[in-house]
Amino acid sequence: METLRWEKGILYLLDQTVLPFTETYLTCTTWQDVHKAISVLAVRGAPAIGVAAAYGVVLGARSILEKPGDKPFITALQDICTNLDGARPTAVNLHWALEQMMACAKAHGGESPTAIVHVLEDKAKAIHADDVAINTAMAGWGADEIGKGDRPLTLLTHCNAGALATAGVGTALGVISELHRRGQVKMVYADETRPLLQGARLTAFELMAGGVPVTLITDNMAAWTMKEKSVDAIIVGADRIAANGDTANKIGTYGLSLMAKVLGIPLYIAAPLSTFDRSLAGGSQIPIEERSHDEVRSFRGAATALSDTPVYNPAFDVTPHENIRAIVTEKGIISHPDTEAVQTFFDKHSL
Ligand code: MRU
Hints:
- By secondary structure, the protein is an alpha/beta fold.
- The protein has 11 helices and 16 strands.
- The chain has helices spanning 31-39, 46-66, 73-85, 92-107, 113-146, 172-181, 198-209, 222-228, 253-263, 294-297, 339-348, and strands at 4-7, 10-14, 25-28, 153-157, 185-191, 214-217, 233-236, 240-242, 247-250, 267-270, 276-277, 298-299, 302-303, 316-319, 326-329, 332-335.
- The strands form 4 sheets. The protein has a 7-stranded mixed sheet with strand order 6-5-4-7-10-15-16, sandwiched between helices.
- Helix 7 links the parallel strand 5 and strand 6.
- Bound molecules: 5-S-methyl-1-O-phosphono-5-thio-D-ribulose.
- 5-S-methyl-1-O-phosphono-5-thio-D-ribulose binds at residues 41, 44-47, 91, 159, 161, 165-166, 171, 198, 236-239, 249-250, 315.
């Protein structure tokens, strides 16, 4: 089962809104199809959104080629990128991938639109392939770091940071799967992740399919589970990491970090370097996506509250860097992240 597939100029996206009960692919032939799929979370998870958007740019470029308007090619393409960028505001991998695509288009700006479409397709394929390799590298680093002890671990994760959230094995779940491969996982507790249940629908499904021992809990069971089941570590993904290591991830992660601190449980973040936004000094500057109130008042069309119930629905929260034991990246580990540790890491790897 592939999260996304590019075949003969068409992007196929596994529709995650209907998983785990139905496995069906959306066919995207226009950049607007991709925009919609990202907005409704048919494709979700920061790295997967970035890869999908890159292919969205190829579809956009092709549409300009087929129907040129008044604007120069590059200007029209920039408009499409700006539009795609608005599909989800917190996951910076989206913005990162669009910037990569625009930089590529501009670098070939002197060539014909047909030639630019070709190089953009190659670029999107490269972003896709890189994500696969990055995930594998991250899984190795993370398993080395977290699996240092000699007994199998009890882990807890939130939302879905697995293969379904990336083009490869996943970020947090990639690390967990590698630990499992090494015989170092006793149990993974998966938060169901209200309101859209990525943990119940996607993470539990993905870990079960991979033969990793998993137990589903509701979000409000996390503190008690950590205490009663002696959770050794929490590992989650990220949507945007500021220069000081403050990390935006699925709503509920901040709460987990507070509980973990009290209980003395380390919290690990697994994220590719493309999830860092070092233009932001701290987490308070990270834009937090707010989603439709109906996501909280109902689930799949079935009401769970009165339709006029006032709602607050932030999709992400920010975990302060003080609450994070380490960030696992494809180039290694940033322990006890803060501005200096992040800067030193990027300097060391000449990034
Ligand atoms: O709203 P979602 O499902 O896109 O949120 C996803 C998450 O918060 C993930 O933890 C994050 O994107 C990391 S994905 C490898």
